[in-house]
Amino acid sequence: MLPSFIDSTTLAELAQISKQAARRAIAKGEIQGHPLQVTTIEGTRSHGGYMHIVSSSSLPAHLRQRLHDLAAEGIAPEGLRIDATGLAEHNWKLDVIRPILGTARGSSARAGEYRRLIGTTRIDWTGTPRHLTKSTLYDWVETFERCGGRHLCLAKKPRNDKGQRRVFVSREWEKAVSFDQATREQVHEDLKQYMRSLIKGGAQRKIALTLTGEKLRQITLAYGVELADRKTWAIPLDFYREEQRFKAVYRHKTDRKASEDNKPRIRRTTANLAPMEVVVMDVHHINVLVQRDNGTTATPKLIAFHDIATNRVFCEIILFEERGGVRNADVIEAFINMCQDPSFGVPGTLYADNGAEYGFADDLADALQLNCSVIGFNGSEDRNRVIRAKPYNAAAKHVEGWFRQMNQQYFRHIKGWIDDDRMNPKSPEVGKKAPPFDDGWDTFQDTIYGLLTAYENIPQKSGSLNNISPAAAFKKHVEAGWKATLMNPQDLLTLFTRPETRDVRKHCVEVFGQYWTCDGLLSCFDRKVIVHIPRYHGFSALRITDERGHEIGIAHADRPYEVLDERGAKESARRSSVRNRALTTLGKSVPTIDVGKELMSFGHRQEPVTPNNPDAVISVNRRGGKGLALSPTPAPKGKTRQQEEDEARQLMDALEAALPSKTRKAS
């Protein structure tokens, strides 16, 4: 059965509004544009002893239906809340008003408790400071006593329309137009899409709000309503803030570094790695000005190979005499030196950057397998032993943190340190450049390696070293039996070449317009050989192999000799001697066979073919056949040269004999 009248609290619960809004609606006699029938009753302790109530029959249809549903289910209009947040809120409020509830209603003791609590600040269930006012405390006590202390009666009731949009664009705009729900939703969605596009395109807040406001004005005008007041098309700031996520698209397109810095990461551990199992390679500036021999200054480059298992670093230092960058040849030389150091050796997996100076690393995949343990196949050994870092992925390269640490904590103690900012370098005096390191290149290298030794012996709290130094961590692995895998430098050099096929001409090969030869080629009688040409650095010698991969020798450029230089004759004789000895050796390596006899023997061993008897005999009539078959006439033989000369001489003699008779004068 529905109650005949309801108070402001019940009206607030039914309409899902605050109690203050419900009281204002009752005082106005209207709610949601619907008139209310209000009655005043006596007997209350507030508002001068009067209380305003609303006839339930005057409620809007949807509120009457809600009141009917709640009454049919036996639930009080204010409903119940059973979530954990509501429980925490109810218990906190109950703890605050518990001293008041322990006193008699209307007593001086209760008034004293109110005075004690009013104006105080408590930390609420969310950790937020909450200022207690008189109206708040009175409302909590009244609600608790009216509900009889029902479970969670002090918790705020959740709105039934939570998550639903109640205002489209702004309140000022909605007051200025009379569009239906569907039209307002369409305008709101179109405007949202426009705002998102602006933010995606990089528009800043002020520009986005201005352009979107103008767009709202145009859209509204298209629906037949002209907005005259600027406030009606002004866009609230929250309208912009709700779409700020589209900034990520603009940042990803225009500032990839910032976008990559915000990408999700995974956590990795190096606790179970052995020394040199994973090595990270990179090149970085040393932020110290060093004076060259010619008086100019530059910052050296540091080529580092970081063993992430022990945090040790093998490094090489380079100072260019002129402007330039680190080349593949420089990195190759540093890598070869590391592979010969018994404290480091060949890495198991090499983590390289994507720069051009690391192109040689792709040739190391097979060589790195030499340091891999033979284990059962589980998919891991199928992985390439050279891993390329992704662009803008400094967080994945452990050596980046090492560079930063060395530059900030160790290299700052070197004369000439200028820090990372080249536009605003560190200097001991304002307005002057820092004096460069001028004690010589050898002294500078000794200083760097000395600081590196200090770094390796200082305990590290972060990471997997557990407050021990890199040197101590390496010592543990050595005592456990770890040994480095070394490689011959000549073998390593063969990795950084590209094989090309060349024709052998006079025991020489032509490469880049120059002829190359060696004693191995003098002894080689193949028509083609493989020349291994270095990929990344200049060369004065070339490795030569045959097409089966067998070593022939190391070829050098074939130098020309002066015409009268005796050394040329000696070298020619030596080459002929080497070639002849090779021919003799080659000839003696197989038995001698008389090919003519072999052919005759082969012919004799073949069975002769016996022809069949003739089918018929054709006779020829000599008389009839005469004239049909002509005997061939041999072609006239050509005259010899002597005969031609004799004929010519005879012709000349005849002409001379005839000439005087034709030119004789009359007497």
From TrEMBL:
Organism: Rhodobacter viridis
SUPFAM superfamilies assigned to the protein according to its UniProt record, in alphabetical order: Ribonuclease H-like
Highest taxon in the source lineage: Bacteria
Region named Disordered: 623-648
Molecular function via GO: nucleic acid binding
Source species taxonomy: Bacteria, Pseudomonadati, Pseudomonadota, Alphaproteobacteria, Rhodobacterales
Name assigned to this protein: Integrase catalytic domain-containing protein
Gene3D superfamilies per record: Ribonuclease H-like superfamily/Ribonuclease H (3.30.420.10)
